[in-house]
Request: fold
Amino acid sequence: MGISVTNPPSNGPSRVEVLTSLIFKCAVDAATTNAGFFRPSSLFHVVNMRIKIFKNDPEKVVGNIITMVHEKMTDSREIALNELVSKLRKGKMEIKERNVEEIGERWENIYSVLGADPNLQIYYMSSICGFPTYDMDFGWGKPVHVKFEIPEEDNKIVLFIDTPHNDGIEATLRLPEKDMVILEQDKELLEYVDS
Reply:
């Protein structure tokens, strides 16, 4: 699914924050339509902590240093797009961890949320937008097109990557098939999708 989202003003939300919120909202709407009722839903969005912890040379750090922003919606009225974008942006701005130990403590809190409510729908989202994916050359040339492979699981997963020409974002989704059928016809989402 290729989606054109231009960068908003520097003080506004990023294109990834807007797209994350839009897809989460539309996916929850699709699940609600299928179930016939709203189920509490949580969005977990991965945040790269390298730039916060290693401000001088984050690209020289080896390994994954990430945390997640968590937004839980317990009422379908909470899922207005502008409010969701604001909550996601605020959550990312409020991350205060300054070292790996504090990130570990945050993960403990995240794991407690994951196991707390068996009726909770959980959506995991991550982005590598902004990474030099199409500039990598391992000796046989730069990639023409990069795609994610999401294993068949029971999870709801969305991954974002820049388009090859950096003129939009591609989203790879793993959702239940019944939800995908409805999502693919969502008029609000289709306003942003390139064919």
Summary: Residues 15-35 form the longest helix (21 residues). Residues 2-9 have pLDDT under 50 and may be disordered. The chain has six helices and seven strands. The longest strand covers residues 41-48.
